[in-house]
Amino acid sequence: MYPPIEPYETGKLKVSDIHTLYYELSGKKDGNPIVFLHGGPGGGTDPLDRSFFDPSKYKIVLFDQRGSGNSTPTASLEENTTWDLVKDIEKLREHLGIDKWHVFGGSWGSTLSLAYAQSHPDRVKTLVLRGIFTLRKSELRFFYQDGASHIFPEAWEEFIAPIPEAERGDIVLAYHPQLNSEDDETRLRAARAWTKWEMWTSKLHVDPKQVAEADDSEWSNAFARIENHYFVNNGFMRDGQLLEKQEIDKIRHIPCVVVQGRYDVVCPATTAYALKKVWPEITLHIVPDAGHSSREPGTSKLLVKATDEFAHI
Ligand SMILES: CNCC(=O)c1nnc(C(C)(C)C)o1
């Protein structure tokens, strides 16, 4: 990855009566524009996210999606849907005076990248996607009900601890009232447990520092509340919508590289493979020794290779 850099500009963009987005620009002021779509949803951006792009070539645009990171109001679920975020990306593009841009997204960021590209194909130069997540019911079931739980039994036991036995038939649904509780202790306990589950399972070798991030109550609260809100609403999409032929046909012409960890238990390779089957033109790399995280060495190397190759487009 490229060395850490600082933004040359940061800003706030009011996108609705309620929401104001934080955004930042780094790299080459008159460079090839790329927009980074973070995961979660609700995860917010990290300064290291700038390092996937050559700063001598790209105008790097990072922004925190509604309720995430430095965008306000923090953790707000009002007017917070996939399609609100797609509209926000267009508002940001117009605000920055960009005609067309490269789009980069992992996990939920890959979901939003596909939704944005299918809504505005004429605004997307290329797509670089990681850990494909299309929010199908089967994907949510694997990670939050009966799948990853078989690979991380000890972390799963901690994850379901806040949920009464009688409610464990639908974990995502059962977490919703706790993550929206008026009682701070209930809400934050649930947010930390929800977030810890994802931090425990994101890398091939569990990163205790990443797991400890779940104890950052403000970040976990936003991450868990917003993720759960989207998941109980199935991403505000038809099941499998992003993989439908009629939707893929809208973007089939766009160059797309996908990097997928073989041992990604958060967004298993089956979805990346389903995308390849319906969109054979994509370049699909399955990294043999990687889990879900973009920071897995084999994954980050291939992501940078892709952005380097697309920098001339
Ligand atoms: C099911 N959500 C997966 C996702 O989008 C995601 N996984 N990790 C992240 C962060 C890096 C933002 C924590 O997001």
Automatic annotation (TrEMBL):
UniProt enzyme class: hydrolase
Superkingdom of this protein's organism: Eukaryota
Keyword line: Aminopeptidase, Cytoplasm, Hydrolase, Protease
Keyword Protease belongs to the record: yes
SUPFAM superfamilies: alpha/beta-Hydrolases
Annotated Pfam families: Abhydrolase_1
Active site: 107, 264, 292
Annotated GO CC locations: cytoplasm
InterPro entries, sorted: AB_hydrolase_1, AB_hydrolase_fold, Peptidase_S33, Pro_iminopeptidase
GO BP term (any one): proteolysis
Molecular function in Gene Ontology: aminopeptidase activity
Reaction(s) catalysed (UniProt annotation): Release of N-terminal proline from a peptide
Subcellular location: Cytoplasm
Residue stretches making up the AB hydrolase-1 domain: 32-293
EC number: 3.4.11.5
Family: Belongs to the peptidase S33 family.
Xref: PANTHER family: PROLINE IMINOPEPTIDASE (PTHR43722)
Protein name in UniProt: Proline iminopeptidase
Organism: Polyporus arcularius HHB13444
